[in-house]
Write a structure and sequence with these properties.
The complex is a heterodimer. In chain A, the strands form 2 sheets. In chain A, strands 1-4 form a two-stranded antiparallel ribbon. A two-stranded antiparallel ribbon of chain A has the order 2-3. By secondary structure, chain A is mainly alpha-helical. Chain A is built from 14 helices and 4 strands. The two termini of chain A are 25 Å apart. Chain A has a domain of 211 residues. In chain A, strand 2 and strand 3 form a beta hairpin. Chain B is of the alpha/beta class. Chain B has 2 domains: 189 residues, Response regulator (Rossmann fold), CATH 3.40.50; 149 residues, Response regulator (Rossmann fold). In chain B, the strands form 2 sheets. Chain B has a 7-stranded mixed beta sheet with strand order 7-6-8-9-10-11-12, sandwiched between helices. In chain B, helix 8 links the parallel strand 8 and strand 9. In chain B, helix 2 packs across helix 11 and helix 13 crosses helix 14. The longest helix of chain B is centred in the middle third of the chain and has 18 residues. Classes of the chains: A mainly alpha, B alpha/beta.
Chain lengths: 320, 391
């Protein structure tokens, strides 16, 4: 069967086409929320590489997200790179920082690693706050609009369409990485390092690779976030963002590709419905996390996959 | 063909009869929609109190018949002082709720995140309570701020401290970020230029820090006559409490980021708060005679048990100039007419703020002065210069 006849690909192509048409039918507020869903989906997928596939308790992803946003902003505003190169530079910066943060993970595990990465998060926030004229300090930094083929991405629709395209490419990349030998090796290392070693999979290499990939995809999300807001500020990369990313992966489903995307859709859209009730967002997060950990420990997608076996992703346990 | 033309012309005439006279966004025959966003949740939720006075004022105006026959309808959103949340809130208010203007923002970063978009869309924006000078400097067509900015606050604290007899040694503590610098730098500059002095000690406290012992010991060692503090509410309370604990009993002057009443409540030690003075932009003490009219208004149109304090009252001045400009813009209200009317506001005495408000097309910063509030004989009193009672 040719790939285009694969019903899943057809369904996805139709879904993407429908999403691309969204701005024709809704106002700019909804378009903005849709763009935020895309960004959060990429952020959650980045987070998922270490806490889902690798199974490590790591809290550095808001730092990677922030590095992407700030690296993009600095490359665009201070270095003067055009938008596509600044975006690429931000992703590479995120990947590099991920790789560096991954080094302690070779020696630390569990709570120790969680504390180290949490401290790294706070260190990055301190750097943003004291970045002076380079990053704008506490007030943040305004960005000029991204320009693509001579066209300025100013309107909500143009930003959304660009973000949607990057997100679709990002999800496709993550999906392929998860199915690749490297992706399966990361899952194997996460499941049992000793067993992975016995299969000639070097745990150190795949540990670091997972962190680098996590940094790379989180940084894409961070750069897109900076483009959408047209501004970077330290407030955006605090504990709330960390909890949001964590909740998205947990609620959607650890160690899958569809789970974090589902979590991002739910936890980005739901608070908007609860806007008129201050504090309801926090309550929703708490209740969802507690409820899911008790009744659906593998997340929403895990629960759905248990009900509908055709939804199961095939990358787990297929290393050979 | 002629019949078609006649039909189209008739339809156009018929439709003109049912179409509203005012096609401006957020304005109907009997309402004007105003969007508000402020931190109602999160660590900066204390600043959400700005909304209380503002909403009570708009209710009072509606009770008095509204503006040119229209009632004000407010739409309130939470931005939690987070730029991304502020953008979402603003888009909802403008694109979905279709507000005429925004009277919003208590955190500079939130306002700066929406500033360009509001300018592009031509939505009039009145700052609710943020102090960053970047909101109105440089001037842009649609952004107005009724309250003193951080430059004014820094300079006011220096002048007030130097009005104390025999005062030569000033020390300062601040957050080491650009919010802190935006106040400390003008203070350093004024102290040097006007009084030919330097701060005897300049220490910093990170936001979120809970231990301030080393800084207080350094300050105490410098033997200051007065200490200026440019800290957020939580850190101000920690500083006041710990300064007393370690015997730093000199007068402490706090900036606009803190409220006197809130700080005293958090410190919960009368002896520690005895030497505390806090910047405010009101015409008198929050619980004083001058503010009684506004307190009564809040109790009538808001919560009858509302505790009246600095933040509750400080947004009312902005609401007053909005209403004044809406009246001046006339019944055929448009955003441009409203902005033009705001630009014509001159020496408007709000009665609630410390000085009259003047806006011009070149200057959208309203009040450019403030005073310090402290407790004398159990009563809160506002002073422009050092009180004789405290010498």
């Amino acid at each position: 069967m040719s790939r285009m006849r694969d019903p899943k690909i057809l369904i996805m192509a139709v879904a993407v086409a429908l999403l691309a048409c969204l701005p024709l039918f809704v106002n700019s507020y909804i378009v903005y929320i849709a763009a935020m869903i895309c960004i959060n989906a990429l952020m959650a997928l980045g987070f998922n590489f270490v806490i889902g596939f690798l199974g490590q308790l790591v809290f550095a992803n808001t730092a990677f997200f922030g590095v992407g946003a700030y690296a993009y902003s600095i490359l665009l505003m201070h270095v003067g790179l055009p938008f596509p190169l600044a975006l690429l530079g931000a992703c590479l910066a995120g990947g590099l920082i991920g790789l560096i943060v991954g080094l302690p993970a070779l020696r630390l595990r569990g709570f120790e690693l969680a504390i180290v990465t949490l401290a790294f998060n706070e260190l990055m926030r301190w750097i943003y706050l004291h970045s002076g004229s380079i990053g704008g300090g506490a007030s943040g930094m305004g960005l000029r609009p991204a320009t693509l083929f001579g066209y300025e991405l100013i309107s909500d629709t143009s930003k959304y369409l660009m973000i949607l395209v990057v997100t679709v490419i990002g999800i496709w990349m993550v999906s392929n990485i998860a199915k690749s030998t490297a992706g399966r090796a990361i899952v194997a290392v996460g499941a049992n390092e000793f067993a992975a070693s016995a299969l000639s999979i070097p745990p150190a290499r795949y540990n670091i690779l997972a962190f680098a990939l996590s940094g790379f995809f989180s940084a894409i999300a961070g750069a897109l976030f900076a483009i959408l807001l047209g501004r970077v500020a330290p407030e955006s990369f605090g504990l709330n963002q960390l909890l949001l990313g964590f909740a998205m992966v947990m609620v959607g489903g650890l160690g899958t590709v569809a789970g974090p995307v589902l979590g991002a859709v739910l936890l980005t859209a739901a608070p908007e419905f609860l806007r008129s009730i201050p504090g309801a967002e926090e309550i929703l997060f708490s209740v969802l996390l507690i409820g899911l950990l008790i009744f659906m420990p593998s997340g929403l997608f895990g629960g759905l996959a248990a009900l509908f076996p055709s939804l199961r992703e095939r990358h787990r346990g297929k290393l050979s | 063909m002629l019949r078609w033309k006649l039909l189209v012309a008739s339809a156009a005439i018929a439709l003109s009869g049912v179409m509203p006279a005012h096609a401006e966004t957020g304005v109907t025959k009997d309402t004007i929609k105003i969007g508000i966003f402020a931190p109602l949740t999160g660590k900066s939720a204390i600043f959400g109190k700005y909304v209380i006075g503002v909403q009570a004022y708009y209710k009072m105006i509606n009770d008095q018949g509204g503006i040119n026959g229209r009632k004000i309808v407010t739409y309130l959103e939470d931005d939690a002082c987070d730029p991304a949340t502020a953008v979402a809130a603003t888009k909802k208010l403008v694109a979905q709720d279709g507000v005429f203007m925004l009277h919003a923002g208590v955190c500079t970063a939130s306002i700066m995140a929406v500033k360009d978009d509001m300018l592009r869309q031509g939505v009039p924006f009145m700052n609710l309570g943020a102090a960053g000078s970047s909101i109105t400097v440089p001037t842009v067509a649609n952004m107005f701020s009724p309250l003193p900015n951080t430059i004014v606050v820094g300079r006011t604290l220096v002048d007030f401290a130097m009005s104390r007899p025999n005062t030569k040694r000033l020390a300062v503590i601040s957050h080491p970020d650009d919010w802190g610098h935006s106040q400390v730098d003008p203070a350093i500059e004024l102290l040097k230029k006007k009084y030919n002095l330097d701060f005897v000690e300049n220490v910093s406290m990170e936001r979120g820090a809970t231990d301030i012992t080393p800084q207080i010991l350094k300050l105490r060692q410098s033997k200051p006559d007065v200490v200026l503090s440019f800290l957020y509410p939580t850190e101000t309370a920690i500083f006041v409490r710990e300064a007393h604990k370690y015997g730093l009993n000199t007068p402490l002057l706090a900036c606009f980021g803190a409220s006197y009443e809130d700080t005293v409540r958090r410190v919960d030690n009368a002896a520690a708060s005895k030497n505390l003075y806090v910047f405010h932009a009101l015409a008198g003490a929050a619980n004083g005679e001058k503010m009684k009219k506004w307190a009564d208004m809040i109790h009538k149109y808001g919560d009858p048990k509302e505790e009246i304090e600095n933040f509750v009252l400080s947004g009312i001045g902005g609401a007053e100039v909005i209403v004044e400009a809406l009246k001046k813009a006339g019944p055929d209200l448009t955003r441009q007419k409203f902005i033009d009317a705001l630009n014509g506001i001159k020496d408007y005495d709000t009665g609630v703020l410390s000085a009259p408000i003047t806006f011009t097309p070149e200057d959208h910063g309203g009040v450019k002065s403030g005073a310090m509030i402290t407790e004398v004989d159990g009563k809160l009193i506002s002073f422009a210069t050092w009180p004789k009672e405290k010498n």
